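can u do me a favor
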């Protein structure tokens, strides 16, 4: 058990009950029984969902059990933001920082990428300063452009009551959706950045919290600028690997090579490693796009055009990959009037999050070409899928079953994979949910017309078996 220094922190709060704030607070409360953790948010519906473990606002394996154990013991969810601020010695800011409008994506050298909307972060800083009657440590956890912690410090100082001092730390979060509990419980590293002059004391307090469950050698301290850039850089480097393998998948399709074999061969080199070399439809989610756009924006702002071009290309490659896959479907079968089963919609397996999912783009291209879609995803709610695919606001009729007509197009959301496949001319795999491997494909084929196609956008199914059954298989990178 790691040694814990004298416990001075007894109350912390986290402003923002989202994908980062909720799970992070749960893990802290679980590992630090003597600390009261309060998660606050302006969204009363969201807070009420966190207070009902059976209906949590996000799907994250293992989270429900932790919330059940800690809720109202030392973990509280509340809309009373001012009270939580007032009683806390340390405050995490984990509010949403959505990307600002994305600028052009051509290679003309004009400004590209996008900054992030920091209004929620800055409002938090003002509110903390106005409410606080005692000095506090403020920890920036939202994903933010470089320099934000510095700005937060300025605002806190400007609005602070007399005698109240704030120390600002940057503590970026590296959890992945779908594995948040495991990532938080066993992080590869915890990064704590601080402005040099205020470094040691505040850092020690935050370290004190993490040392309850994280080995000391995994807690890395650095300057605020380095911490903020480490977050952007980590996501950019991961996204770059995905774009690299996806670029090679296009080459495989032309050469007759198989991207899975190539990835396995390259990944076996210990200097390269096998992670993030899975060819796919392209990366999605809230972080990779946002952080790359933010990085490109930053490079352009600093007039580092070749550097901006370099990272911009990772984004362009991603768009190319998704649209390449859609075009491959359209050039293989005539989809006009045909029903196509779309398996998966989330931006990756293990989550109900569909932000920036490449599935939207593929579905829209199919719809534009006149296809009718039956979509199945185990976790994304039907109304999310429908609202992302149609212009109209749609009311979901049941938790996971709804239907809407969009002009000549049609989208229906199904509650089972076989229901989506029944009668469809082709199956398109959009998300790598492991359960798709266990579909009774023999039974599925019997419900489909002759010359049934499977387009495996995640290169995840057993193609040899499917071909033996009689499917025409088209796979990413093969
Ligand atoms: C990412 C980072 O991994 C995490 O550290 C950071 O805190 C937030 O952003 P997340 O977006 O949840 O996490 O998912 P991740 O597992 O990184 O996947 C991102 C996208 O890349 C997904 O669409 C995924 O399907 C895709 N991907 C990932 C691939 O296409 N191939 C791979 O080999 C790996």
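np, heres the sequence
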């Amino acid at each position: 058990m790691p040694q814990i220094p004298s416990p001075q922190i007894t109350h912390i709060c986290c402003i923002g009950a989202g994908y980062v704030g909720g799970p992070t607070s749960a893990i802290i409360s679980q590992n630090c029984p003597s600390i009261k953790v309060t998660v606050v948010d302006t969204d009363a519906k969201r807070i009420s969902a966190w207070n009902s473990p059976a209906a949590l606002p996000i799907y994250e394996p293992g989270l429900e059990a932790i919330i059940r154990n800690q809720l109202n013991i030392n973990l509280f969810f509340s809309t009373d933001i001012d009270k939580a601020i007032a009683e806390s010695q340390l405050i995490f800011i984990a509010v949403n920082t959505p990307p600002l409008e994305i600028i052009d994506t051509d290679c003309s050298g004009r400004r590209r990428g996008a900054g992030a909307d920091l209004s929620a972060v800055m409002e938090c800083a003002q509110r903390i300063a106005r409410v606080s009657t005692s000095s506090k440590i403020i920890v920036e956890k939202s994903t933010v452009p470089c320099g934000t912690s510095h700005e937060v410090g300025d605002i806190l100082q400007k609005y602070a009551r007399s005698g109240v001092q704030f120390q600002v730390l940057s503590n970026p979060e590296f959890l992945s959706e779908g594995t948040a509990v495991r990532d938080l419980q066993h992080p590869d590293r915890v990064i704590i950045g601080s402005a040099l002059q205020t470094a040691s004391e505040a850092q020690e307090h935050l370290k004190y919290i993490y040392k309850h469950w994280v080995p000391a050698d995994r807690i890395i301290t650095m300057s605020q600028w380095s911490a903020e850039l480490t977050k952007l850089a980590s996501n950019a480097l991961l996204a770059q690997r995905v774009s690299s393998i996806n670029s090679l998948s296009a080459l495989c399709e032309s050469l007759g090579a198989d991207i899975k074999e190539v990835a396995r061969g390259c990944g076996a080199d210990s200097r390269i490693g096998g992670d993030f070399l899975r060819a796919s439809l392209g990366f999605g989610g809230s972080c990779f796009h946002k952080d790359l756009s933010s990085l490109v924006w930053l490079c352009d702002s600093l007039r580092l055009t070749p550097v901006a071009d370099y990272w911009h290309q990772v984004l362009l490659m991603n768009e190319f990959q998704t649209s390449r896959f859609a075009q491959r479907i359209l050039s293989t079968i005539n989809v006009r009037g045909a029903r196509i089963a779309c398996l998966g919609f989330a931006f990756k397996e293990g989550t109900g999050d569909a932000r920036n999912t490449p599935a939207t783009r593929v579905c829209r291209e199919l719809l534009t070409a006149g296809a009718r879609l039956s979509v199945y995803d185990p976790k994304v709610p039907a109304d999310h899928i429908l609202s992302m695919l149609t212009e109209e606001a749609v009311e979901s009729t049941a938790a996971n079953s709804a239907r809407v007509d969009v002009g000549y197009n049609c989208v229906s959301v199904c509650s089972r994979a076989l229901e989506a496949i029944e009668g469809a001319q082709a199956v398109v795999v959009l998300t790598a949910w492991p359960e798709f491997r266990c579909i009774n494909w023999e039974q599925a084929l019997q419900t489909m017309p002759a010359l049934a196609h499977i387009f495996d956008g995640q290169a995840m199914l057993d193609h040899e078996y499917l071909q033996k059954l009689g499917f025409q298989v088209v796979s990413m990178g093969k």
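The first strand starts at residue 11 and ends at 15. hope that helps!!
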